[in-house]
Amino acid sequence: MIVMKFGGSSLANGERIRHIVELVKPELTRKPVLVVSALGDTTDQLLEAAAAALERGTVSIERIMELHKNTIRELNIDMTTIMPLLDELHSLLVGISLIKELTGRTKDYLVSFGERLSARIVAAYGTAVGIKALAMDAWDGGLVSDSHFTAAELVPESWDSIPKKLIPLIDEGVLPVLTGFIAKDCTGAITTLGRGGSDLSATMIAAACTAEEVQIWKDVDGILTADPRIVPEARPVEAVTYEEAAELAYFGAQVLHPRAMQPCMKTKTPVWIKNSYNPQAPGTRIMAALEKPRPILGITSRNQVTLVDIVSTRMLGQPGFLAELFADFARYGISVDMVATSEVSVSVSMDSVYDLEPLKKDLSRIADVEIKTGRAMVTIIGEVNRSAEILYRAFGVCAGLGIPVQMVSLGASKVNISFIVNDTQSADVVKGLHAHFLDDFLQG
C-alpha cells in the first residue's frame, strides 16, 4: 500500500479536487490511503468565525458555506454530503457566542470541521467517478492522541490501532479518505496535532501499516537548494536523508516539519515530496541513506534571531556553571538554538519572540550579559565531513561580501554548519553561498 497526502492548496476548489483524483486513479493498484487537509483557507476562516462569535456575538459561516457549496456544485455531487457538519458547526459557534469562551479543547473541535468537510467531499467525488471511496475521520482510522489540545501528540496505541482499522478496508478494495491534522484522545475529545499535523497523520499511517511509501503532495517541486524568493536559481534536490530533511526544515526550509518524519524514520519508510500543480516534476525523496552523499545539499536562513553574549570569569574551572546558566533559560521557557563557549564566555542564539529582560537581570548576578537583536542564522546543510574546506570557502564568501560572521556552530548531527550575521545581510550571504557552491558541491 501507499499513502497519499494532499494539502489545502491542492484542494483549493472543485477543479483541484478533480485533478488530485486523476492523480490517484493510476495508483489504485497500489492500494492507496488518502489523507487530506482542509480546503484552501478554511482553517483561517473557521478561526475568524470563532473570533467574531466570541468578541461580537456574531454567528456566520457564510464564507465557509460558500466555498464548500461552490466546490460541490463544481463537482456535481450531493449537497447532503456536508449539511450535517455545517449544521453542527453553526451550533458550535452559537455556543461560543453565548458562553463567551474559546478553550483549547473547543478550538480543536472547531478547527476539525475543515478536514472533516474536505474528506467527505473528496470521497463523494471519488465515488461519483467510480472509485470505492470512503470518508473517514482520523479516529475512525485508528489515530489516538494525548490530551494536549492545539498541539497533541499521537500515542503509542496508534501503532496497533491504525492497521487494525485500515488494512481490512484496503484489502476489500476501499479507498479510505482520512482527515489529516486531527485525532481523538482516550476520552473521545477531538484534538489537533499542531505544526505539520496533516503530514504527521500521513507518515504515521504509512509507518504503522508498513506502507511502500508516503507521498506528500504540495505546491512546490520538492525540497529546494535555497528559498526561491531569495535565490531564483534554486532547484529541487532529488534525494535527501531523514536527518538532512529535518535540518533543512528546522533551519528554514518549511516543506516538511521535522516531527512529521519521525514515524517514517523508525520504520525507514520512504517519503516523497511531490507537486500537485506539476506532477511531472520528479520531486524529492526522503530516505534512510543515500548511495552517493553530497558535500552540500542546500543553504537556508532564518531571520529575527537574537544573540546573547554572556561573559564571566567565574566560568573558568567552575563545575556546574553552565547548568546554573541554562537553568535560568529553562525557568523562563526560552529555547536555545546555537551555543558556542570559551573558557570565560558563552554565546547563544534564539528566535526573537522572547522578553529577555527578566533573564538578563537574573544572569547579571553571575555574568556580564549583552543582548543583540536583528540577527539571522544562515545554515549550510549537507554531508559535512569536509567541514574545514566548506568553512574556509564559506568564510571567504562572507569576507568577499564584507560581512563579518558573529558566531559559528558545527551541529552535533554533522549535517549542518550554522553562523550568525546581521538580519539585513542574510539574503546577500545566502545568494553568495549558493552561487559559490551551486556549480561545484551541489552537483556532487
Q: How would the global form be characterised?
A: globular
Number of strands: 16
- Alpha-carbon distance between the termini? 33 Å
Uncertain residue segments: none
Beta-sheet strand percentage?
A: 15-25%
Number of helices: 13
Give the CATH topology of the largest domain. Carbamate kinase
Indicate the CATH class of the largest domain: Alpha Beta
Number of domains: 2
- Major beta-sheet overview: 8 strands, mixed
Give me the Rg, rounded: 24 Å
Helix fraction, binned, reads: 25-40%
CATH superfamily of the largest domain: Acetylglutamate kinase-like
Chain-averaged pLDDT: 91
Instruction: Give the strand order of the largest sheet, numbering strands 1, 2, ... along the chain.
Output: 3-4-2-1-7-9-10-8
CATH architecture of the largest domain: 3-Layer(aba) Sandwich
Structural class: alpha/beta
Return the string of H and E elements.
EHEHHHHEHEEEHEEHHEEEHEEHEHEEH
If you had to describe this structure to a student in words, what would you say it looks like?
The protein is of the alpha/beta class. It folds into 2 domains: 2-218, 3-Layer(aba) Sandwich (Carbamate kinase), CATH 3.40.1160; 298-443, VC0802-like (2-Layer Sandwich). Helices cover 39% and strands 21% of the residues. The strands form 3 sheets. It has an 8-stranded mixed β-sheet, sandwiched between helices. Strands 12-13-11-14-16-15 form a 6-stranded antiparallel β-sheet. A two-stranded antiparallel sheet has the order 5-6. Helix 3 packs parallel to helix 5 and helix 8 runs antiparallel to helix 9 (258-267). It is globular.
